[in-house]
Structure formats: C-alpha cells, structure tokens
Amino acid sequence: MSILELIDVRKTFAARAGAQVALDGVSMTLERGEFALLMGSSGAGKSTLLKLILALEKPDEGSIKVADRDVHRLTADSVPFLRRNLGVVFQDFRLLSEATPVENVGLPLRVIGVGANEIRERAREVLLRMHLDPDLKRPVKTLSGGEQQRVALARALVTDPPVLLADEPTGNLDPELSREILDHLVEIQSRGTTVMLATHDPLVRSYVPVTRILHLDHGVLVNNEVTPRLRAISEKHDATDAPAEVA
Amino acid sequence: MRGLRAIGYVFARGVTGMRQSPLVQTVAILTMAVCILLLGTASLLLINAGGVVDGWGVDVPLTVYLDEEVSEEDARALTDRITVLPEVLDAEFIPPETALKRLHDGLGAGASVLDGVESQMLPTSIEVHVRPESPEEFSSALAGRLREVRIVEEVTIMGEWASALNDGLSALRTIAGTLALLVAFACVAITWSTIRLAVFARRSEVEILRLVGGTRRFVRAPFVIEGAIQGILGAALAIALLAIGFHSLAPHLERGLSLFLVAGAIRFFTVSEVILAMGLGALLGVIGARLAVARYVEI
Prior knowledge:
CATH superfamily of the largest domain in chain A: P-loop containing nucleotide triphosphate hydrolases
Radius of gyration of chain B: 28 Å
Number of helices of chain A: 8
Strand order of the largest sheet of chain B: 2-3-1-4
CATH class of the largest domain in chain A: Alpha Beta
Helix content of chain A: 25-40%
Largest sheet of chain A: 6 strands, mixed
Strand content of chain B: 5-15%
Oligomer: heterodimer
Largest sheet of chain B: 4 strands, antiparallel
Strand content of chain A: 25-35%
Helix content of chain B: 55-70%
CATH architecture of the largest domain in chain A: 3-Layer(aba) Sandwich
Strand order of the largest sheet of chain A: 6-7-8-3-9-10
Structural class of chain B: alpha+beta
Distance between the termini of chain A: 18 Å
Largest interface: A-B, 25 and 21 residues
Order of helices and strands of chain A: EEEHEEHEHHHEHEHEEH
Radius of gyration of chain A: 18 Å
Distance between the termini of chain B: 24 Å
Number of strands of chain B: 4
CATH topology of the largest domain in chain A: Rossmann fold
Shape of chain B: elongated
Order of helices and strands of chain B: HHEHEHEHEHHHH
Structural class of chain A: alpha/beta
Number of domains of chain B: 2
C-alpha cells in the first residue's frame, strides 16, 4: 500500500529571466516502510519536492497524496495536522538555538498540548535513542553539528510519524558524523517508518540499504529504480499493518 | 485539557517574546502611552466641561423665582400647574434650603463664606425642563405667562447662553472623537510595526513551528498576546500619568471653579472607565498584532 504518491507534479518559480522549472511532470509512489533515496545535484528539485510534500509550496499542476489524502486539497486549517504526520530534518538543523535539547525535541508535543511531564519523558526517551544526554541543560547552539542533527532527528521522531523526510541531513557534517546520522536513519526505517532521504552525495547510496533510488535532473525524474529490498518490505507491511492515518 | 496546556504555552511564549526585545517593546509601550495620554486628556476635559456646565445649570432652560412671601402650598400648586403642560418634561420645586445646599456645594472649599447665611435669604424657585420636541418659542411664551402670575418675581431663560455652551461642548466632543480615531489608528500602527519586527526577529521559530505542525492560531497567538500586553501597559502608563497630573492640578482648579459656584464639578476617571480604557488599549493592540501576523505569518 502506498504512503506517498506524486502524480505528474509540475512546479515553476518566477525568475527575472522567465519561469524557472523546478519540477517537471514528476510521478512516483512510495510504499509504506520504504527507504527512498532522492538524488540529484544542487538545484535538481529535491528540496522543492520535499517542500511540496510538506505543503510549504503548492504545485502548479499534478497532485501529491500522503496516505491517499491529496495534500494540496487540504484546507489551511488541516495542513498542520498533515505535518504532524511527517517528520522532517534539514541540513541546517532548524532548531531553536537558545533552547535545550529537551525543549527542542518536545516542541511537536507542545504544539498538540501534551503535558510537561509527558513531554519531558518522551523527549528523554527519544534523545537516548539518538545517543544524546537528555539531561543536557545547554542551548543546542553550543552542541556540535552531529549532536544538533541528532536533536533534529529526535524532534522529527518524537511523535512517531509514519513518514520521515530528510533534506541533505549530512550536508554540514564530516564523514564520520554523516555515517552516524545515516545509521540512525536506517534504524528508524527498520522500525517501520517510511524514510525519504534527499542527498547529492552518491556515496550515501553505497552505505544505506535503500529500497528505491529516485534521481532528479533539472526537475525531471530520470530514474526510479527499485532495489530487491523493496519486495521484503512490501510483504512485511502487507501482512501486518493497518493503513496509516494522515490529517 | 490539551487545549488549556497549549494556551498556557502560547501565553508564556508571548511574555517571553517581549523580554527578547526589551528596547523595541519599551519604545512601543511609551509611544502608545503618549497617544492614549492625549486621548485621556481630551476625554477628561470633555467629562469635566460637561460637569461644569451642568453645575451652572444651563441644562435648566427656565428658572422661575417666586416672591419671598410665597407659601410652600402656593409654590407647589404652581409647580403642579406647570408640570401638567404637555410641552413640559418636568418642573421641580426648589425650596430655599435646597438652594442653600446647592450653593454650599458649589463653593466647595470656599463654602465658609456662607457661614451665618440663613436659607430664608435665598428665593424659592421652580426649575422647568421643556421637552426637546417642543417649539423653540415655547420657553419664552411660558416665561411671559409666568411673569404675570402674582407670586412670580422673576423668570430667567438660559436660551442663548445654554445654546452657546452646548455648542462649545459639541465642538469639544467632535475634537475628542476625531482625536480618538487618530489615536486608535496610531496605536494600531505602532503595534503592527512592533509585531512585524518581532515576526522578523523570530522568523526561524515561526518556520520551525510550522514544520512541526503548529496551527495558525498556535503560531500567531504569542504575537497577538504581545500586542494585547503592549496595549494594556500603554493604557496603564497613560492613566497613571494622567492621574498624577490631575491630582496635582485639581486643587488649583477647584479653587478657581469655586469662584463660579461650580466647585466639586470636576472628577477623574471612575474605576470602570479605567478598566474600559485598559480594555480598549488591549483591543487596539490585538487589532494591530492580528493585522501584522495575518500579513507576515503564513501557515
């Protein structure tokens, strides 16, 4: 069963030299529990695609469905509920720099009105899972890049979203820290979360056991390659899980 | 329960947000206070001008002074005869004791000059209020008829004098109303501008809240709360300054007004008026903040 479906998606941005095509007729499907690698050089349209899935941008044409819900047909008031089902991490972490790791990780829970004790408990749990000290009282801006990215990952996972979108999460990290983050992503996928990892680094492909490789070139999906791992994932989910609810 | 927790967080975030930019907030609150101070001064002038005019009795269009030998029975009978006229709203019998008390109140601190004055030294009178819809010439016609009554000594009509004062009051009301609109606009503009700055200063936080599924209300509310607090603090500061100014000037004003027999006619805002002013300050802050977040905080 598909968790994410893009049908003939086109997106352009206005530029001085005329409309700049960011995505051109992109169609693809992700099954639940997949680990998809979204590859392409800078400016290929990877970030635009993730922004469209998150409803941060609107497509000019086509549709994007998350768990069979058309993202861009949702009302403005429903969009936040969609985002609560999509964990997201970025190259630049996007953390509250003055807040502690627990405060950052607890933010998605604050948004839905969870009590302070439960927030602390759940944030500690997921920080430990990311091999971070949950008792750190320092602002996250004082942590290393790798630690900050793990805090960002913990924040993305604290609500147990069915989908995790990662936009160049290792882009600011050295090779060793990058491998650490990739290991976390693999572990997250092994627990049943669908992961879409956007990267321009071809070495990631050899390190991560992915189910699908998507390659964007100047906004066009030039490759949608399924690996043998997908069959095993599909069989596992068809046999066990109920459909994920979004929004 | 979850909703209440979210409200608690949003409120705390609004207060914390203000602490993050103390200089901008202070300037905004001071500017709002100056604007509200102007409006408050105009309102106090209006309220007290009305009080002074009432003290002079210009709202009584016709006063009938009776012969000093008149009996109370005859005076009340004449009052009743005037009251039943269809053009008359009401007629009030004012015995000398009531007149002396009013004079005493009007002199305020200078009332000691009346020591030893007997009420019998003042005339008995009847105050006549004419219905507003009555013909203009009715008051003078009634005065003419009353002057022919045996027990009537004098009839005064406030006509032109009252009309001039009421015109002055109307002009003051128009000025205060215009000032109120200008001040409201200024307060909204100040809050709009401050909140716009706050949104830019905290744009990464807004972006993060959007990403983690913050609703429109959740993301925008802290800024609106900031606006409301600015309005309340601006109004409170303005009222405090006005209170200090009023209580410093009031004794001097009272002395001056006692010469015109209207001491005690001036007052400061009542508690409910102060609460209303703070509420209005909050409302203007909320409007300014809502306009800013509607424009600058997208979900």
